Amino acid sequence: MDLMSLYFSSNGRISRKTYWLASLPLGALWIVCELLKEDVAGGGAGLVLPIILLVSLVPSFMLSIKRSHDRDKSGWFVLVSFIPLLGPLWILVELGFLHGTVGSNRFGPDPLAVGPDAGGMMAEAR
After folding, report:
1. How far is 5 from 52, CA to CA, in rounded Å?
2. pTM, whole model, 2 decimals?
3. Cα–Cα distance for residue pair 74/41, rounded to 1 Å
4. Can you give the residue range of the structural domain that contains 20?
5. pLDDT (tens digit, 9 = 90+) per residue, 10-62?
6. How far are the Cα atoms of 83, 110, 118 from residue 105, in angstroms, in the given order?
7. Is 113 helix (H, G, I), strand (E, B) or coil?
8. Within-domain flag for 101
9. What is the dihedral of CA 41, 43, 45, 49, to 10 degrees?
10. Would you say 36 and 49 are in contact if contact means Cβ atoms under 8 Å apart?
């Protein structure tokens, strides 16, 4: 899966490893923006940083949707994260720590499967 489809498409499934590795740059971007926001609160960059953060929400949601697909849940499941207190924890456990569906499901082939029906993916450790 190329980077554009990883970050900007909701089609397909991704493994936990791919989810965490693809989330690292987004998390680093959030941290950098938060640190810079403190330094440039009065400057012209005060408007640029929130825009960068809003733009990074799209790739974050696309990763979460693909990971939900691996758990055989609709992309709408990501909206659970908006439930106060419980939602983000539930999403963290479901998407970050629980195994995906073994074998193909309604959203595509198993991203960890090896073989001709694996969709060209290489095996990764569950």
Report:
1. 20
2. 0.83
3. 39
4. 3-96
5. 999 999 999 999 999 999 988 888 787 766 655 556 677 778 888 899 999 99
6. 27, 8, 12
7. coil
8. no
9. 10
10. yes
The C-alpha atoms of residue 121 and residue 116 are separated, in whole angstroms, by 10
Q: How far apart are the first and last CA of the chain?
A: 18
Task: Please name the amino acid found at residue 50.
Answer: P
Query: Around 13, how many Cα atoms within 13 Å sit in the side-chain half-sphere?
Result: 28
Q: Which two tokens stand for residue 91?
A: 């999403």
Q: What gap in Å lies between CA 67 and CA 16, rounded to an integer? A: 7
pLDDT tens by residue, 76-112 = 999 999 999 999 999 999 999 999 999 999 999 999 9
For residue 11, the one-letter residue type is N
- Domain assignment present for 121: no
Tokens of 105: 């499901």
Joined tokens for residue 53 = 């953060």
Domain count, the chain: 1
Note whether residue 122 is domain-resident. no
What tokens does 73 get? 């849940």
Q: What is the DSSP letter of 122?
A: P
